[in-house]
# Entry
Amino acid sequence: MGGDAGKVPGSGKVPGRRDTGAVEPRFDAVIHEPTRLRICGLLSSVREMRFADIREALGLSDAMCSRHLTTLAGDGYIALTKRPGESTRHMVTWAAITPEGRRALAGHLAALQAIAQGAVL
# Structure
């Protein structure tokens, strides 16, 4: 639809135009689901967080927390890693938001703000 006209291929930038750092509003149905939005919000403020801490902070069951984390990981918005726990008898799952997840969250929040101000996206 002409949105990429004039951009330098592969850079997403238009020659001669200053990059203002503004986030492009982009509604994201994956992030929009309330629990996943809350998870992304939690993870955006920390380097990483244990599964149990996410589950407790949001008051979720193990199954629901796992389901939402798996969905976000499947879309590349978070990274899940397993490491030995303090007792080394069991593995602990850690979640961290990815750079792609940060961009998607910022774009989604910008879209929500634009919608709240009357924009039709």
Observations:
- Helices lie at 29-32, 34-44, 51-58, 62-74, 99-116.
- The mean pLDDT is 87.
- The beta strands are 49-50, 78-84, 91-97.
